[in-house]
Specification:
The C terminus is likely disordered. The termini are far apart. With 205 residues, the chain is of the alpha+beta class. Helix 1 packs parallel to helix 5. It has 2 domains: 90 residues, Homing endonucleases (Endonuclease I-creI), CATH 3.10.28.10; 91 residues, Homing endonucleases (Endonuclease I-creI). 36% of the residues lie in helices and 23% in strands. The protein is globular and about 45 Å long. It has 7 helices and 8 strands; from the N terminus they run αββαββαααββαββα. The chain has a 4-stranded antiparallel β-sheet with strand order 1-2-4-3. This is Homing endonuclease LAGLIDADG domain-containing protein. InterPro entries: Homing_endonucl (IPR027434), LAGLIDADG_dom (IPR004860). It comes from Candidatus Lloydbacteria bacterium RIFCSPHIGHO2_02_FULL_50_13. One of its GO terms (molecular function) is endonuclease activity.
Length: 205
């Protein structure tokens, strides 16, 4: 199947974020989505954007951590396996591990792609008026690719921070946060409004 331009953008954002592409055979892959119980609406929205891929029903899962004994609740849904997703897996999992591909500037070129990535892995700190986009345990070179893609395509400039155990993150200063949020705001689900800064109000003369 061929993905639409918007589907490609949403897929890019979610692969950069929380999604996983599972290899099935030599050419195919399936997309697996997992989100916490409180983000059920988000998982349903994602799956709905790929209605031809996701034909089954989401599954509610409870898992007890073997060490902490805490119970984790989340929703999971897996797509059909297709050669198209197999091609995307080669981009993002060239050696079986997730990477930020060198071609990201060509993939991350629509606001909705950036919004989905931010809904997955972005954080806003109201006290300091800044934002972070957590990249996980990627190489420094991959973090630089991510920063360059956002800068080139959206004119938003980030600094790369090494968050040690959390891996690399992109830091957006208060002024860059305002630019970032203005670009992605209309694509953010109501569930994630807490990740956005307040809209500046215009004072009447």
């Amino acid at each position: 199947m061929k993905l639409t331009k918007e589907q490609r953008a949403i897929l890019t954002g979610t692969l950069l974020g929380d999604a996983f592409l599972q290899k099935t055979g030599k050419r195919n892959a399936r997309l697996r989505l997992e989100h916490g119980a409180a983000q059920k609406e988000y998982l349903f929205w994602k799956a709905g954007e790929f209605s031809r891929l996701f034909q089954g029903k989401p599954v509610f899962v409870e898992r007890v951590h073997p060490v902490t004994k805490r119970t984790y609740q989340y929703w999971r849904q897996q797509s059909n396996a297709t050669p198209e997703l197999g091609k995307w897996r080669k981009l993002f999992y060239p050696d079986g591990k997730k990477h930020i591909p060198p071609t990201l500037p060509d993939l991350l070129n629509q606001p909705i792609a950036l919004a989905v990535w931010y809904m997955d892995d972005g954080y806003y700190y109201p006290k300091d008026h800044n934002s972070y986009l957590y990249l996980g345990r990627v190489a420094k070179e991959e973090a630089e690719i991510a920063a360059q893609a956002i800068s080139r395509n959206f004119g938003v400039h980030a600094r790369i921070y090494d968050k040690k155990q959390k891996g690399f993150a992109l830091y957006f200063s208060p002024s860059e946060t305002q630019k970032l949020h203005s670009i992605i705001r209309k694509h953010m689900l109501p569930l994630f409004q807490y990740k956005l800064s307040a809209v500046a109000t215009q004072m009447s003369p």
